[in-house]
Amino acid sequence: MGKEALQNLLGPLDDASHAALLEKARRATLQRFGRTVQIYAPVYLSNECVDTCLYCGFSRTNRIPRRTLTVDEVVAETRHLIAQGFRHVLYVAGEHPLHVSPDYLESVLHSVRPLLSSVSIEVAPFGEGVYRRLAAAGLDGVVLYQETYDRSRYAEVHVAGPKRDFEKRLSHLEDAARAGIRHMGMGILLGLSDWREDAVALVGHVRRMQKRFWQSEIAISLPRLRPCESDYAPPHPVPDRDFLQLIAALRLALPDVGLVLSTREAPALRDRLIGLGVTRMSAGSRTEPGGYLHPEESLKQFEIEDRRSPADVAAAIEKKGYEPVWKDWENLL
After folding, report:
1. Residues in CB range of 309: below 8 A, 6 or more apart
2. Which residues, in sequence order, are CB contacts of 265 under 8 Å at separation 6+?
């Protein structure tokens, strides 16, 4: 699909064309991925952060209690998720070179890797050397959102800290791929900029990554801005109808790429998206460090909408005629 065809899919649609696009995306998802939806959960390691980002609850200037889990606490949170069936876990943290260092992450990986089928991180980006070291400790996935491809908006919302460097952030995902990391997570934060322009840029970025690093498996996520401690009002809010159109268009533009849906979205919308482009869903998420065993509202990154238990989310997937997949990968080498 060329750029013009993609722009046509993303453009304003009447109701009939919108419904036809969703149906086409549903058939494409079924053809490529079958009746399966992978389930994963995030574990928040730390809410310490050196960046000042206007839209984030962990932003350095927000006056919130700060906490970083010990390795033993991370293992306890992980075992809690395993008891509920999870085998794919994403470890998330604010960007802080001292509290969430390569040494800390390496210790976490050595402790949790034997317990899980797949371990990914969504933390501060690193260079190729550090990623190689973490891969040797068992890391097989890196999630790194560009947030927005609108450079002026990017500079406006990333006020201070290393994340302010747009070009450097773009390059770090390639560092992870060169280091041999198997899963790449990419995405945009909906609400910051014009979603149609950001989507076209995201597709271009994904295709460049696929061309250069064909061994990597890429998934994209499209989180919408949610209320948080920063009290940031999205300048470009994305209504549900446009959100559905975006997911359907990306499914057709990137037929082999996984699409991730988080608990930021409401249960009814999440249920509607099962089989419609989405191939991976989080469930039962907490967004504060230690939140599964010791919930603490003041520590979380943002509000979630789908508060159902993992078992309830799995039941919703089955009710739609799909299979919830808790584990689809075994690293035997």
Report:
1. 84, 283, 284
2. 224, 273, 305, 306
Three-state SS for 202-238 is: HHHHHHHHHHHCCCCEEEEECCECCCCCCCCCCCCCC
Q: Tell me which residue of 125, 305, 328, 133 sits closest to 223, measured CA to CA.
A: 305
d(CA 188, CA 198) in angstroms, rounded, equals 7
105-114 contacts, C-beta under 8 A, 24 or more apart: 105/134, 105/137, 105/139, 106/133, 106/134, 106/137, 107/71, 108/45, 108/71, 108/74, 109/134, 109/137, 109/138, 109/139, 110/137, 110/138, 111/71, 111/74, 111/75, 112/74, 112/75, 112/78, 113/137, 113/138
Number of residues written out for the chain: 333
**Backbone φ/ψ region at 14: left (φ over 0), alpha (ψ -120 to 50), beta:** beta
Structure-token pair, residue 76: 């306890």
Does residue 62 contact residue 232 with C-beta atoms inside 8 Å?
Answer: no
Measured CA to CA, the distance from residue 286 to residue 143 in angstroms comes to: 18
- The rounded distance, in Å, linking the Cα atoms of 172 and 104 is 19
pLDDT tens figures, 151-199: 999 999 999 999 999 999 999 999 999 999 999 999 999 999 999 999 9
What is the H or E stretch that residue 44 is in? strand 36-46
Is-contact 49 64, C-beta < 8 A?
Answer: no
pLDDT at 333 over 80: no
Whether 168 contacts 183, CB under 8 Å = no
**8 Cβ partners below 8 Å, 6+ apart?**
none
Rg (CA), the chain: 19
**CA neighbor of 128 nearest in space, from 192, 194, 174:** 174
Paired tokens of 332: 């035997």
pTM for the structure as a whole: 0.94
- DSSP reduced 3-state for 125: coil
Structure tokens at 293: 């065993």
pLDDT at 231: 78
Helix (H) or strand (E) holding 40: strand 36-46
- CA atoms of 102 and 131, how far apart (whole Å): 9
